[in-house]
Amino acid sequence: MKIKSFPSVIILLCVVASVLLAEVRGTSPLNVVLIVADDLGAHDLKAHGSDLHETPHLDAFAASGIEFTNAYAAAPICTPTRASIMTGKNPARLHMTIWSEHALRGPKLDRPMIPADSEGNLPLEEITLAERFQEAGHHTFHVGKWHLGEASSFPEVHGFDVNIGGHHWGAPPTFFAPYKGEVYNEMRYVPDLHGSQEGEYLPDRLTTEAIKLMKNAGDTPFFLNLCYFIPHVPIDGKLEYVEDFASRMGPGNRHRNAGYAAMVKSLDDGVGRVLEWLNQSGKDKNTVVIFVSDNGGYTGKWEGETVNNNAPLRAGKGTLYEGGIRIPWFMHVPGIKDANKVDVPVTTTDILPTLLDLAGLDHPTFDGASLKPLLHKKNFNNGKSRSLVFHYPHYYSGTTPVSALRKGDLKLLQYYTPEGLRFELYDLSEDPGESNNLAKDRTAIVNEMRAELNTSLWEMGANFPRINPDFVSKK
User: Fold this and answer.
1) Residues of the chain scoring pLDDT < 70
2) Residue 474 within any structural domain of the chain
3) Catalytic: 168?
4) What is the per-residue pLDDT for 9?
5) CATH for 437
6) Options 43, 78, 255, 394, the catalytic residue
């Protein structure tokens, strides 16, 4: 098993070596701030067409930096996507395809298909983004949502020097201090937030803690993994924000949840504070900043109200339709001043190799690819189109077990049923809402894409669903 700890003298030598190498090159080591939102949809920002949400800081970030307009989460739910960010690997290869608590409980056996087996803990053998930066002499900080396993797989054993608020649950019981309460018949809490005052708001506190860590890093380079719990349910926004959005909402609004809008605004506030501190401290000149979401927007209900609407994209979180996996993705990279919109499809598996490449750190081959050429408007993937593979062999509201392949503008969905495989094919260039299934009319293309999809999944050693022999239909 890979040893996860390093003697302090080795870490000190790594820091010194990193600084000396940077001085020889005439540059300072790069800092990295990775900000991950929870369940933020691709069209939740005002700049992306929301008719209710207010996101001035994220809108300005997108307008002034690099925006990937065809960005995908590696999975339609949180844990697998977060694992892809930390490792650069496809969730199918990691066997992490469902959220952590569900994987640890085991699959339910009340459906026609038995969902695939899934790992609930990020394996200790995986080399994470934090470990690579830690080995290079960076301070490594995790703040906020972790959701990659139990205590034996917390951030501290995956390369983070500091962990504030990271635990194995997917969401807190409330976003207001003292951040504890009963959820699904168990008590939950957010650890390491000492001295919180009654009424303190969790996103605000996490932002404060993140800025404090960056300040305390001094001249040592740092990697900050800032993972907000919002706008994931519970819908629990600041009252003044909720009332303001409720007063603005009219009958024609597509986005119609004032509480959700309030949470999106608080997310925007937090990102704004981080960017402002980087600017005022001068760290922005030597800090890569990435903002992404872990999956598409949640379109279910909370306390009787629909949470979100991803239109014009189809469906939402938990599905492999565009509404479930399309996400916002912006970057600021020192030395790149021109705003740039990149329409090449990318996924969260690309984050690790991209950041290591930008920092000049060696990395082996991953499922993801370094996007550095795209950042500099250079040739990517030898000018060839790259296929993207998704694997969600589980049930969720709006879907049954499914895999998908995006190849160019075409997207194939492969559903697993007791009767065999079922296919849907969409041309995203003409049908971004995935309303016109072309599978029956383009069988040759379906056969070609299904072969590529299944070859990729088998090569990754993916786990598959299987027929449930004990299922009895209630019809």
Assistant:
1) 1-27, 365, 475
2) no
3) no
4) 42
5) 3.30.1120.10
6) 78
